[in-house]
Amino acid sequence: MNHKDHNLLINRLNLQRSKLHIQRQKLKHQIELLKNQRRIDRAFRRLTFFAGGVAMPLLTLPQLYTIWATHQTAGVSFATWLCYALISLIFFMFGLRNRQKLLMVTYLPMFVIEVFIVIGLVVY
């Protein structure tokens, strides 16, 4: 092997090393993006759980209290609350069937509260 061939071989090896280094850097960047995406997904799931599983039922309790404690049903639509209850039941059943805990945790409490509102509207 002459000197020229030797230099050509070294240049090719250096080029391959550079390409490998760039590929490694790209992979590291993709891994970081995935880690960040997982953090964002986790935070979004927590926010969704709080909004759906905690805040929505708590925000609906005053309506339930008004109907059952004061027996005031003026301006409260039976059809609307019945539809809300049916929709909550559908989403809960979908979550149950597909093992989606977030849907189950969100819609079961809402379904129970909405059913009690509907019963209160019938009773009072």
Average pLDDT reading: 93
Estimate percent helicity.
over 70%
Could you state the order of secondary-structure elements as H and E? Answer: HHH
What Rg is obtained from the alpha carbons, in whole angstroms?
Answer: 30 Å
**How many strands?**
0
Number of helices, counting only DSSP H or I runs of 4 residues or more:
3
Residue share in β-strands: under 5%
Summarize the main sheet: none
**Which parts are unreliable, with pLDDT below 50 for 5 consecutive residues or more?**
none
| Helix/sheet category | mainly alpha
Report the span from N to C terminus.
101 Å
Tell the overall outline. Answer: rod-shaped
Keywords summarizing the entry:
124 residues, 90% helix, single chain, mainly alpha
What does this protein structure show overall?
The radius of gyration is 30 Å and the shape is rod-shaped. By secondary structure, the protein is mainly alpha-helical. It contains 3 helices and no strands. It has helices at 3-70, 78-97, 101-123. The termini are far apart.
